[in-house]
Amino acid sequence: MAGVCRVEEAARSILAVLKTSNACLSSLDVLARAGVCSKFIGRLALSMLVRRGMVRRVPDYGSRRMCFAPA
Predict the structure, then answer these.
(1) Structural domains of the chain sorted by starting position, each given as residue range(s) with its CATH number in brackets
(2) What's the number of CA atoms in the CB half-sphere (13 Å) around residue 59?
């Protein structure tokens, strides 16, 4: 397995990606840029960050999906 495979490390990596990005990113874009090893680990980390208030979910009206941005 390559990449970040622990939830805490994935959360740190995801937060760093979102803070350096100028755009609101979809969950798959965030996970790919952060180098998370699986969607399951990445989505756990994203939901943890949303619950803690570090990341917010933003509606992406062009694609009718949610994207993520730093809080």
Answers:
(1) 7-70 (1.10.10.10)
(2) 2
- Residues 6 or more apart whose CB falls under 8 angstroms from that of 54 comprise 15, 70, 71
Is the whole-model pTM more than 0.85?
A: yes
The one-character DSSP state at 13 is H
pLDDT band at 63 (very low <50, low <70, confident <90, very high): confident
Structure tokens that stand for 48 in this block:
């943890």
Query: What tens digit of pLDDT does each residue of 9-36 get?
Result: 999 999 999 999 988 899 999 999 999 9
Cα–Cα distance measured from residue 26 to residue 40, given in angstroms and rounded to the nearest whole number: 15
How far apart, in whole angstroms, are the C-alpha atoms of residue 64 and residue 14? 22
